[in-house]
Amino acid sequence: MTGAGVGTATPDGVLAGQTVVVVGGSAGIGLETARQVRAAGGDVVLVGRNAERLERAAQELGALSTAALDAQDAERLERYLRELPGPVDHVMVTAGRPSYTPLDEVDVNAAARDFGGRIAMMLAVARASREKVRPGGTVLFIGGTGGRRPAVGMTVIGAVTAALPAVTANLALEIAPVRVNLIAPGFVDTPLSASLLGDQLEARREQLRRTLPIGRVVGPEDVAALALHLMVNGAVTGATYDLDGGQQFVPE
Questions:
Q1: What is the C-alpha to C-alpha distance for residues 213 and 251, in angstroms, rounded to an integer?
Q2: What secondary structure does DSSP assign to the chain, as a single string?
Q3: Integer Cα distance of 231 and 169 in angstroms
Q4: What is the pLDDT of residues 96-146, one digit of tens each?
Q5: What is the dotted CATH code of the domain comprising 2-243?
Q6: Can you tell me the distance from the alpha carbon of 159 to that of 147, in angstroms, rounded to the nearest whole number?
Q7: For 2-15, what is each residue's pLDDT tens digit?
Q8: What per-residue confidence (pLDDT) applies to 6?
């Protein structure tokens, strides 16, 4: 199932009394989602690899707690979620870095880790969330749309992009009544995008402003707004929601 973003803001207080665990919550989409959760009255638990950045985010938001760990270590992440004190309402996972490598340059073992590690992380989070997330709550993953268009260097990320909706739909049945959904953004203007593009960042922004049907670049606040909607809307599960401003419909 593919849907569209929501144009209205989440009402103040709609997440009052709820706790959201944000894995990858110290920067970019995760941090902006945590900000919007707090604005909607919810509490946040932040997980990330960079302890210093995590501490800054926690101080800004008044986080209940933080954990500095690598989400790609699926066993450790699952153990951490299981050991959280008390139940939570939602778990959002934004961790993961895309891989754009031509075939001749691919490290086959690294590619296997990239693909298998991403799937293992989803399975670990879902398994822990079956017991930790309250019925009707959400497990929300962030994927992408970029790998849907075949091109040189897109083999690994294309495989991951294709796999995530299938994993999401099946997990929605496996851990019901906890809900499982996937947001698939295109280009989002985040520090990660800046690190990947380097001095080509501004040119990419300008290209998207000219070509996207929405006439602007998608930002982390757009993804966060949809994430909060999926937390609140208890009828949505097993779905993949594209959020790319129409990027996949525009010739590159």
A1: 12
A2: -EE----SPPPTTTTTT-EEEEETTTSHHHHHHHHHHHHTT-EEEEEES-HHHHHHHHHHHT-SEEEE--TT-HHHHHHHHHTSSS-EEEEEE---------GGG--HHHHHHHHHHHHHHHHHHHHHHHHHEEEEEEEEEE--SGGGS--TT-HHHHHHHHHHHHHHHHHHHHSTTSEEEEEEES---SHHHHHHHGGGHHHHHHHHHHHSTTSS---HHHHHHHHHHHHH-TT--S-EEEESTTGGGS--
A3: 16
A4: 666 678 888 888 888 888 888 899 999 999 999 999 999 999 999 999 997
A5: 3.40.50.720
A6: 7
A7: 443 344 456 678 99
A8: 40
pTM of the model: 0.90
